[in-house]
Specification:
The structure is a single chain. The chain has about 280 residues and is an alpha/beta fold. The protein has a domain of about 110 residues: Rossmann fold (3-Layer(aba) Sandwich), CATH 3.40.50. About 40% of the residues lie in helices and about 15% in strands. The chain has 10 helices and 12 strands. A 3-stranded parallel beta sheet has the order 1-2-3, covered by helices on one side. The radius of gyration is 20 Å and the shape is globular. The protein starts with a strand and ends with a helix. Bound molecules: glutamic acid.
């Protein structure tokens, strides 16, 4: 039996802030407490927003915090072959279709999810000959998952939550994949979508426990579906609370949260930061 494997998977779209430190330390400490292996993955599929200097910043900041990891750093931008194979597997099983709708058309066609959640999109599957012809003529399209067919084939689904979701959910979580709608799994500008890259990478890195913020709790449902469809192993999940600042709002790059680099430059030590974070 291979031992436990944990990971931290930041997107290098900016410098890390306290929220990232909290997440990385939560995963790393839980990992080392059970003598697990810790993997680092750079989620840089979005080539427009990700930058090499931010990746260097991730390494610098995590090292400053005292974190270490096992094995090479996995970079999503190096993984096209693995993602294409997964897409082909799903397409070969008849679970993907080309969607030619524009953003506006998609917005107009959104419906409420089965249990009344966020509005979601279910597309129209065109006859294959027509879809292939339009694609060959250069019309833009996205590959979407036919989520209702996928859910039918996968059967009842769930995952084990060992932390908690945004509403305090813990223990076995039933998943209703239809509530995500027909998610986009590949597009021209970003070859592969986040959900697919994550499940392929978690499997290839042998991740047994996914520790991440509870903002990603809803994403776990669709990721579980993809794992089942692709025949990938099932990790255990531990979603953690989101760190909030003095104003009660969660830390986010877009709010220009103070970066770890800035903290360091004004003399804060890793020990001070770790005690301030009040890890669970
Ligand atoms: N790359 C994602 C982020 O930085 C995390 C994805 C995950 O942990 O599954 O928000």
């Amino acid at each position: 039996m291979p031992g436990p494997v944990y990971r931290f998977a930041p997107s290098p779209t900016g410098r890390l802030h306290r929220g990232h430190a909290f997440s990385a330390l939560t995963s790393w400490r839980a990992c080392r407490a059970v003598a697990g292996a810790f993997r680092l993955r750079i989620e840089d599929i979005d080539r427009i927003r990700c930058r090499p200097e931010f990746e260097a910043g991730v390494i610098e900041d995590l090292s400053w915090l005292g974190l270490d990891w096992d094995g090479p750093v996995l970079r999503q931008s190096d993984r096209e072959v693995a993602y294409t194979a997964a897409l082909e597997q799903l397409a070969g099983a008849g679970l993907l279709y080309r969607c030619f709708r524009t953003r506006r058309e998609v917005a107009e066609a959104m419906t409420r999810a089965p249990h009344g959640d966020e509005p979601v999109f279910f597309g129209l599957r065109l006859p294959e000959a027509e879809a292939a012809e339009r694609a060959a003529a250069g019309e833009a399209f996205a590959w979407r998952l036919d989520v209702r067919e996928a859910a039918r084939r996968a059967g009842p689904l769930g995952f084990l939550e060992t932390g908690f979701g945004p509403g305090g959910q813990t223990g076995w979580q039933a998943v209703l994949p239809e509530s995500a709608g027909d998610v986009v799994l590949a597009r021209k500008d970003i070859g592969v979508a986040y959900h697919l890259a994550v499940v392929v990478d978690d499997a290839d890195q042998g991740v047994t426990t996914v520790v991440r913020g509870c903002d990603l709790f809803a994403a776990t449902g669709i990721q579980r579906l993809l794992q089942v469809l692709l025949g990938l192993p099932e990790p255990v999940y531990r979603h953690h609370r989101l760190l909030v600042g003095p104003d009660g709002k969660r830390y986010a790059k877009r709010d220009l949260a103070e970066t770890l680099q800035a903290l360091r430059e004004r003399g804060v030590t890793p020990t001070q930061l770790i005690s301030e974070l009040d890890l669970d």
